Amino acid sequence: MGTRATTIVHKPKHTSFAKHSASFYNRAMTNNINENGHSVSPLTKEDAQQIIDARIEHINAEFKVAFELIKNYPRSVSIFGSARVEEENPHYERARALAARIVKDLGYAVITGGGGGIMEAANRGAREVGGQSVGLNIRLPKEQQKNDYTTDSMEFSYFFVRKVALSFAAEAYIFFPGGFGTLDEFFEILTLIQTHKIRRVPIILVGRDYWEELNDFLFRNAYRTEHAISKEDMDLYKITDDDNEIIEIIKKVPIKQG
Fold first, then answer.
1. What is the pTM of this model?
2. Where do the domains of the chain lie?
3. Which of 35, 41, 88, 174 has a CA 20 to 30 Å removed from the CA of 106?
4. For 120-156, what is each residue's pLDDT tens digit?
5. Could you give the angle at the alpha carbon of 210 between the alpha carbons of 205 and 212, nearest 5°?
């Protein structure tokens, strides 16, 4: 079906200075640790500054490439969810089918974290119907491996840069069941919209079996008991398992300008 053709991969280009500084950092830290794992002596001010400069340059490079990538997709939907979901899981098939409909019915790009599970399902659904399927992957020692269903992708070193890219400019955010990473992304985007740091667009939670208990907790504790959020805050997200409703919600969102 042509789902495993070559994918465009975007990588930040590090300068020789950054490479040299990273190498210097590794040598400095290694040479500064004794056989018991204790620091022998503190880094000098010059050593520390060189390390800071290298880290900042690396971060800036990732931000630049990430924004250059995202601006290629002015109409997009970001889909989040667990990397651990297997293909046999009903949520996997739902994410795959919904992503396909987003491409076919709306012509939008589908953007995910680029890993397995729900992310793979969404990229797969988009690519199988000929759509733009973007993966913003994170470099981890285990679990997060890039899936084979992206048409464009980037690998990040820093979680916070990746999170900015995923939340930067979508017409909607769709969350399937997931773990700490998914919940972290959900609450961060929810907070950004609540505090008017990003424009208000739909936050859609798919999987009532998963999200209703969290919704009840927020209503009973954060809203009704502790008064930590308002009733209007509870309306910033929508729980639904109806794909037709989701498509209609996205259709009504004004396309961002600039």
1. 0.83
2. 12-66, 74-251
3. 88
4. 999 999 999 999 999 999 877 665 678 999 999 999 9
5. 75
